[in-house]
Amino acid sequence: MRLLFVNPNITPAITEIMAAEALRSAAPGTEIVPATARFGPLYIANRIEAAIAGHAVLEVLAERAAGFDAAIVAAFGDPGLHAAKELLDIPVVGVSEAAFHFAYMLGKRYSLVCLTERLRVWAVECAEEHGLSGRLAGSRALTAPIADITRAQEQVGGLLLAECQKAVAEDRAEVVILAGGPAAGLARKLQERVPVPLLDGVRSAVHMAEALVRLSPPPARAGSMARPAPKPTQGLSAALTRALEGEAKG
Fold first, then answer.
1. Is 19 part of a structural domain of the chain?
2. Which candidate, 192, 145, 146, places its Cα nearest to that of 165?
3. Does the structure show a pLDDT above 80 at 247?
4. Do 189 and 111 have their domain in common?
């Protein structure tokens, strides 16, 4: 099984952090192939950056998705996810989407713990967009600035742990999701100190993508996930132009 792991942030170091956790999470025989966006923000944490990142995701998928069994949009908030599902015939999973779904299965109330306040707002909106905010008990964010986002786990790991523990004590959360690509893998390290399941979006997405590949659903031929009718485009990459102007889905 081959999974294309698309990081819409332009920072290779963040791709490395997330891809390392994806590799730790993957089943034997699953190949994880990371890809970093060519353009966009250093780190995605608000609606403007998410809109840019959505375009970057589609460009990467149009260029590279052929030959893969599934793709993962590896940024919390899932920029471009629904468009990516329209673009491809293979399953496409977002790290937020996967974490929200697993949280629903593990408890009646879940909380989000985010790296920044702007990310918290966007993450809550993402849960609402997915129709998975009904059990959202609370959302929390750090107020301390992060000097180097690629070293967030070292710099603010203790603060994130405290917020996870508060989510259980004060929000009565039965599941906690630790949000943000730079925090990938931290949930696994902190789990023993949090008394409820602590979910990581990257790990969740890998497991969900593997399950969908094994389920082998047929491509949509009707509805909103089916490929839209082709139309002329301008200014896009050659690969995305071909995809939108009528070539078969990858």
1. yes
2. 192
3. no
4. yes
